[in-house]
Amino acid sequence: MCPHCKKIYAPKSLLKKHMQFACKMNPRNTTTFSCTFCPYKSIYKANMERHVSNVHNTGTLKFRCELCNFRSNYSFCVRRHIKTFHRLDDFRK
């Protein structure tokens, strides 16, 4: 049984996953690290640091969105950004 929300999980592995990632009553899961450049959020500081380094490191970013200032080291991130934030499906330059 989850000590935070009292939900019952038969296998302990499911209970552990629930407590680590899903339980909204667990204070650890409600603390998030928010990116200052975009809407990305993570419950892990290391994931946020990796995100900022990979996506927003303006010194070495190779790819950029033609519609805004979003930049990334990865072309697929720019394509995903365009699809998600600009609501365009097949935008290629």
TrEMBL record:
Keywords annotated in UniProt: DNA-binding, Homeobox
Residue span, C2H2-type domain: 33-56, 63-86
Source organism superkingdom: Eukaryota
Coiled coil: none
InterPro entries: Znf_C2H2_type
A molecular-function term among this protein's GO annotations: DNA binding
Full protein name: Zinc finger E-box-binding homeobox 1
Organism expressing this protein natively: Mycetomoellerius zeteki
